[in-house]
Amino acid sequence: MNGYNFTDRVRKVLQISREEAARLHHAYVGTEHILLGLIREGEGVAVAVLTNLNADLEEIRQKVEETAKKEKVAAAGPDLPYTSRAKKVLELAMSEARELNHWYVGTEHLLLGLLREEKGIAAQVLTDAGVTLERARAETLRLLRSERPGHVPPDLPYTAAARGSLELARQEARDVGAASLGPELLLLGALRVIQTAAPGSAAAALAALLSGAGVTPERVREVIARDGGK
After folding, report:
1. Are 3 and 159 in contact (CB under 8 A)?
2. DSSP three-state, residue 16
């Protein structure tokens, strides 16, 4: 969405959110389910922020479930839609990431998005628990500053090029009958990707540098074939 990468942890939270919505027999994914997903996932900066602000996660979970009552009949279908408020939360999470000059959307941005949305069940429950947007943002910044300079999330998202590189490495592995992905196959996948990079990009410059040194996909394949893929 809008060029922003959700971390693997955020993707997991959103998957859990759908599971929570289904568990409560709701036909939608709302802000309350996203908050339940954050709590159930149990790790990441967002949970650290809540814990440091002395929020009782179990109490918050119970309050959310009391407010968002379970329906009697289960909702049909696995692809539950996001409510307009839940969509707004995702947009606000990306906005928070931009304002913090982060190129990824982590659980911390998701938490700030929930609070910034203001009107959903999640924001109401969090505010009642003493977790305001201002306090959460300040604690988030404090935690990120306590990390090493140039904070990088522990669950780094893959770019489209990196995902393509991995898929090409798997393809090369199948072609040679390899039972696993070794560094030589990963290198081969990466070489194939950077050879198609846009002219003038860093990847294109790297491809030219490696090619000039004789490191080409063809040469790497020769080495793999010679050594039996070991």
Report:
1. no
2. helix
Q: What share of the chain is helix, strand, coil (3-state, %, to 5)?
A: 65, 5, 35
Alpha-carbon gap, residue 187 to 84, rounded angstroms? 43
Residues 6+ apart with CB under 8 A from 162: none
pLDDT the model gives residue 212: 87
Both tokens assigned to 16: 């859990």
Q: How far apart are CA 34 and CA 111, in angstroms?
A: 9
Q: Which CATH number fits domain 5-146: 2.160.10.10, 1.10.1780.10, 1.10.8.60, 3.40.1280.10?
A: 1.10.1780.10
Give the separation between CA 40 and CA 21, rounded to whole angstroms: 13
| Pairwise CA distance, residues 166 & 40, whole Å | 30
Among residues 113, 134, 108, 137, the alpha carbon closest in space to that of 123 is found at 113
For residues 94 and 82, is the Cβ–Cβ distance under 8 A? Answer: no
Q: What is the DSSP letter of 80?
A: P
- Spans of the chain, pLDDT less than 70: 1-4, 71-78, 146-157, 228-230
At residue 16, the pLDDT reads 92
